[in-house]
Amino acid sequence: MVSREVTRKGAETIANIIRTGAEILLEEGFTALTKRKIASRLNISHGNVGYYFPTRESLWRAVVEYELKEYYKVHHSKFCIDSDDPQANFNEYVTSWINEYDDRVVRVFFSHIIAFGEVNKDIAKLRDEIYEIFFEQTLRLAQALEPGVEPSELERRVLAVIVLLEGLHVVSAFRPEIVERDEVFKQFILAQANAIIHGHNSG
Q1: What pLDDT sits at residue 130?
Q2: For residue 145, what are the CA distances in angstroms to 34, 140, 142, 158?
Q3: Around Cβ 133, how many Cβ atoms within 10 Å?
Q4: Cα–Cα distance, 98 to 92 (Å, whole number)
């Protein structure tokens, strides 16, 4: 994330800057994520932050990459592919995606990425990189599950599954109890994802 060589103390400073930036992002959004605000919170000079992150974009990318690492550590670190059971792999992946909406940090982080990406090309680039990763991960699982399906058709199905799952952003906002506690609803969403991937909803 930082191109210049740093000392151990410098590495600690960088880590503190990124963690503080992540806190600001989750509390106030990208517009508040500035070098000056971070410097003020850490009681260090603005120049000290700028030394490691000379541009706003480099700071934003570092914070986003940090939050993504935390996201994967919390929500996907235990996920492992079983080559003998592609259906179980797909179900586990979709279920983990559904369950992560219980985590407010996840909801806030991705909401900021999606919203600010509409008005800022740098965040839009980060957003697109993130969702391309999600697309490729889902596509690999789908390919193992439906190896005979035409690639363009399978890609459409994967995109439809992403539409289904990302819609939980909205549902978890105005009906949080459904995503948090309604296991029947979660199983319904999983069944819909499977119907899409297997082509049962095609018509």
Answers
A1: 95
A2: 45, 9, 5, 12
A3: 12
A4: 10
Is the CB of residue 42 less than 8 Å from the CB of residue 17? yes
CA contacts within 13 A on the Cβ side of 58: 14
Structural contact between residues 53 and 65, judged by C-beta atoms closer than 8 angstroms: no
Chain-centre distance for alpha carbon 201: 27
- 10 Å CB burial of residue 50 (0-12, 13-18, 19+) is middle
Q: Report how far apart the first and last C-alpha atoms of the chain are (Å, whole number).
A: 46
To which residue do tokens 């999600």 refer? 134
Residues 37 and 109 in one domain: no
Q: At what angle do helices 121-145 and 104-117 cross, to 10 degrees?
A: 120
Q: Give the model confidence (pLDDT) of 41-67 as tens digits.
A: 999 999 999 999 999 999 999 999 999
Is there a single domain that holds both residue 47 and residue 115? no
Which residue range forms the structural domain that includes residue 111? 76-197
Residues 6+ apart with CB under 8 A from 118: 124
Residue 202 predicted with pLDDT over 70: no
